[in-house]
Write a structure and sequence with these properties.
With 329 residues, the chain is mostly beta strands. The protein is 15% helix and 42% strand. It folds into 2 domains: 117 residues, Immunoglobulin-like (Sandwich); 133 residues, Immunoglobulin-like. It is rod-shaped and about 125 Å long.
C-alpha cells in the first residue's frame, strides 16, 4: 500500500513536469520563430553585397556616376589681414583683399576671379563711386597648394574720403567650365580726421608799429572721410620748446603771440580778430564737410593779420609756426 502511494505521487510529479516542459517548449519555439522572421526581414533591409539574395527574394543593383566637373568654391575673403583700414590723407590707399578658393578639378581650373569692395549700405552691383563702391574685374593669382586650394588677391585703390564704417568684399570665382561661386567678407574703414593747409602765411614787409592791411588767407582742406572742426595755436620759430609764448622769433628780438590774429572773414579789422594762443583753441563756426565729389575738395579759408609792436621792437627776418589740427565735430 505504501509503495503504491509513493508511485502515484511520482507519476503526478512526472505528469506536471511534462506539462511545464511542453508549455515552455512552445514558448521557446514561438520566440525562435519571431526572431527568425525579423532576422530575415532585416537581412533583406541591409544589403551587404550587389546581386541576388537567397532564392532571389531581392536583388541589389549597383549605381554609379562620374562627376566630370565640380563647381569652384569661395572659402574665405578678408581685407587688410582682417585689421581696420586707415586710409591715406589726401590721396588713395591700396586695399588688398585675400581670397581663398577651392576646386576639386584642380586649383588651376579656376581661371578668373573678380570682386567688388563696397560700403555696407550699398549693393555689390551698384556703379563705382569713390565714396562707397570700387570694382576689380581681374584679381591676381598669388599661390596654390598643388592640389585643390588657390589664393587670389583683389586690390582696390580707395580714396581718402571713402565712407568710414563697415565695408564688404564680394568675390566671384569662375572655372574653365564657366561655372561660378561667390561669397563675401566684411572689412572696416576707420574714421580719418585729416587736413591740409596753405604752406606759408607770408605777411611780407612791415615796419615796427605797422599792421598788415591785407588779410592773408590760409586755406584749410578736409583730407579725411568725416566732417572736421579746426583748432589752432602758435609758437615762435620751428620748435615749440624754444618758441613758446612767441608768435615769431626774429633776427633781433621777437614778436609776442597776441600780435598775430585770425578770423573767418577777410574784411574783419585787426582789433576785432582773435589773437593766437600757445594752446589749441577751436575756431568757432569752422566746420569743413567731407568731400563727396572727386573734382571738388572741401576747403574753407581763414584770414590772418599781424602787428609789429613797438614794445618788442624786433628787426630782421621773423619766423613762427601755426599748428592747425583736425577735430571731430
Amino acid at each position: 500500500m505504501k509503495e503504491l502511494l509513493m508511485r502515484s505521487r511520482k507519476e503526478r510529479h512526472f505528469s506536471r513536469d511534462a506539462f511545464l516542459w511542453e508549455k515552455w517548449k512552445n514558448r521557446i519555439l514561438l520566440a525562435s520563430g519571431v526572431f527568425l522572421f525579423f532576422f530575415i526581414l532585416l537581412k533583406g533591409a541591409f544589403v551587404t553585397s550587389w546581386g541576388p539574395a537567397t532564392n532571389y527574394i531581392n536583388y541589389s543593383v549597383k549605381t554609379t556616376v562620374n562627376v566630370t566637373n565640380a563647381y569652384p568654391e569661395v572659402l574665405n575673403a578678408s581685407c587688410n589681414s582682417g585689421q581696420p583700414i586707415t586710409l591715406a590723407a589726401g590721396t588713395t590707399m591700396t586695399v588688398n583683399c585675400t581670397i581663398q578658393l577651392r576646386d576639386y578639378n584642380g586649383w588651376d581650373d579656376i581661371n578668373k576671379v573678380n570682386g567688388t569692395f563696397y560700403y555696407y549700405a550699398n549693393l555689390s552691383d551698384d556703379p563705382d563711386d569713390n565714396n562707397v563702391h570700387y570694382s576689380n574685374t581681374s584679381c591676381n593669382y598669388t599661390s596654390n597648394d598643388g592640389e585643390y586650394l588657390v589664393n587670389f588677391t583683389c586690390s582696390f585703390d580707395v580714396w581718402y574720403y571713402a565712407n568710414n564704417g563697415t565695408w564688404r568684399i564680394n568675390v566671384t570665382a569662375n572655372d574653365t567650365y564657366s561655372k561660378t561661386d561667390n561669397d563675401y567678407g566684411n572689412a572696416t574703414i576707420s574714421a580719418l580726421l585729416a587736413l591740409n593747409v596753405t604752406s606759408v602765411i607770408d605777411f611780407e614787409d612791415l615796419a615796427v608799429t605797422e599792421t598788415s592791411t591785407e588779410a592773408i588767407s590760409a586755406n584749410v582742406t578736409n583730407f579725411g572721410n568725416r566732417p572736421i572742426n579746426v583748432s589752432v595755436y602758435g609758437f615762435g620759430g620751428e620748435s615749440e620748446a624754444t618758441g613758446a609764448g612767441y608768435a615769431m622769433i626774429c633776427a633781433i628780438r621777437n614778436i609776442t603771440l597776441p600780435n598775430e590774429r585770425y578770423d573767418l572773414d577777410s574784411a574783419t579789422i585787426y582789433d576785432d580778430m582773435t589773437p593766437i594762443t600757445s594752446a589749441p583753441v577751436t575756431i568757432p563756426d569752422l566746420t569743413i564737410q567731407k568731400q563727396t565729389d572727386p573734382a571738388t575738395q572741401m576747403t574753407n579759408a581763414t584770414y590772418w593779420r599781424i602787428h609789429i609792436n613797438l614794445t618788442s621792437n624786433p628787426f630782421g627776418v621773423c619766423n613762427g609756426t601755426v599748428v592747425f589740427s583736425a577735430l571731430a565735430p
